[in-house]
Specification:
Blueprint lengths: L2 H24 L15 E7 H5 L2 H13 L2 E7 L1 H9 L5 E4 L2 H9 L3 E17 L11 H11 L3 E3 L5 H12 L9 E3 L4 H10 L4 E4 H7 L5 E5 L6 E9 L9 H12 L1 H9 L2 H4 L5 E2 L11
Parallel strand pairs: 1-2, 1-3, 5-6
Antiparallel strand pairs: 3-9, 4-7, 4-8, 4-9, 4-10
Length: 293
């Protein structure tokens, strides 16, 4: 082959290679979104303070983020405030413990897929010496005794799940607490316990938050085990059809994570090593009917 023909052949081959390379570059696309490579990474979780104060989310969220590539922005407020955020489309997913309010927002269409995650219980705590003697009583009997004696009682007063439960108990005994003895903190559960401790008063709290802070308190569990003190937690997705900016995929990924068998096992064991008992009972797959609700 002549030298000129060789050069021409090489030029043709080179041009073909360039065309193929350009076509390949033009066809290149971003990898499909997966849970390990989410399009929208940030998830807004609106939840009750008890899941934060107990330390449960501090354990679970890093695992979720590492597994999926999502980043959780936690807004820990009272369940009432968390539900209000969901109602306005200001969160992607809710984790709350206010059944009556949850059913209302579900019926209104602001959230979907309300699913039971776990439960523990509420307890009535107070000074170790128990000056008005409520230890061992039923919840409503204990509150009636506290009111009659006008012993200091610290309420959250923040429309949280705990606050809603407390108000429901007062209503059951047809009593509206008022006076200097009844004080509303307007704060989360951890701070409310601190105030009750400082004032040597009584209060209602979820067991998990109390046990996680007990070492800093001079208070004791005085009323427990009453069925009226059941404390159940649900996860709910903010409705993406109603609020188009919701991170639908991220919210579902977090809900699926909470309900996964591996996560449920973590929840069931959380606190055993530190407190000698679990702070929550895992309920994935159960419904409120299992609790007679």
């Amino acid at each position: 082959m002549k030298k000129g023909n060789i050069i021409n052949t090489l030029m043709v081959v080179l041009m073909c290679a360039l065309v193929l390379f350009s076509a390949g570059c033009g066809a290149k696309t971003n990898p499909p979104a997966t849970t390990a490579n989410p399009v929208v990474k940030d998830i807004i979780l609106a939840t009750t303070t008890s899941t934060q104060d107990s330390g449960l989310l501090d354990m679970l969220i890093p695992i979720f983020e590492q597994k999926t590539g999502y980043k959780i922005k936690t807004i820990a407020v009272g369940s009432g405030q968390a539900i209000a955020m969901g109602e306005k489309g200001e969160a992607d997913v809710l984790l709350t413990h206010a059944p009556d309010a949850e059913r209302k927002i579900l019926a209104g269409g602001a959230v979907i897929n309300r699913t039971l995650v776990m439960h523990n219980d509420f307890i009535i705590i107070g000074p170790v010496q128990d000056p008005v003697t409520i230890k061992g009583k039923k919840a409503t009997d204990a509150l009636g005794t506290i009111a009659k004696a006008q012993a200091v009682f610290i309420s959250r007063g923040d429309k949280s799940g705990t606050d809603q439960l407390e108000k429901k108990l007062w209503k059951q005994i047809e009593l509206t607490p008022k006076g200097s003895w009844y004080q509303e903190s307007g704060t989360g559960m951890g701070q409310t316990l601190t105030i009750a401790n400082e004032k040597n008063g009584y209060s209602i709290t979820d067991r998990a938050t109390f046990l996680s802070q007990k070492k800093n308190l001079s208070l004791d569990i005085l009323v427990e085990g009453d069925p009226k003190l059941l404390n159940i937690y649900h996860v709910m997705l903010v409705n993406p059809e109603k609020f188009t900016k919701v991170n639908k995929a991220g919210a579902k990924a977090f809900s699926d994570f909470l309900l996964a068998a591996e996560t449920q096992k973590l929840i069931a064991n959380f606190g055993k090593d530190k407190y000698g008992q679990a702070l929550f009972f895992a309920d994935g797959g159960k419904t409120e009917k299992d609790f007679g609700l």
